[in-house]
Fold:
Amino acid sequence: MDNDNSDEPKVIDAEVVNIGEEAAPATGADTLLNLTSLIQNYLGNIARMKKELSEQRQMLEDSFNNDPKFKELADKAKEANKVKLALKKQILNQPQLAELNEKIKESKAELKEAQEILSSYLQDFAKQTGETQFEDANGEINQIVYIAKLVKISSLEK
Structure:
């Protein structure tokens, strides 16, 4: 008789056998169809979630607007904001501030362009080296990440 310890589970060797048709390995076309299906499912889920979120926000906003005290304060805040924006516009008409504001806009545009160029360079770097990390001048290691999103072609043409 074996010297079994009843507290330990017994290990039994077994072989998994497929009954019926052999499972065919996934082809590139199958993988692409599955990926396309997943993308379409997520697009549908995201559209549904956005619609639900919009409805929930509207319900919440309606609740606030139906409260007379809140509505009164919101109206006062709106009016105060209009006055504030008019004063801000008046102040920005001063030559020095108008020039500074224009410099800020130009700097923002330059920064955005520089970030887009850096993104392009990082993509080229990753393609050429196969690396997903980049060490900056300070010796810090940075991860190269990509963010993909869909933009309707019709909205690009407008």
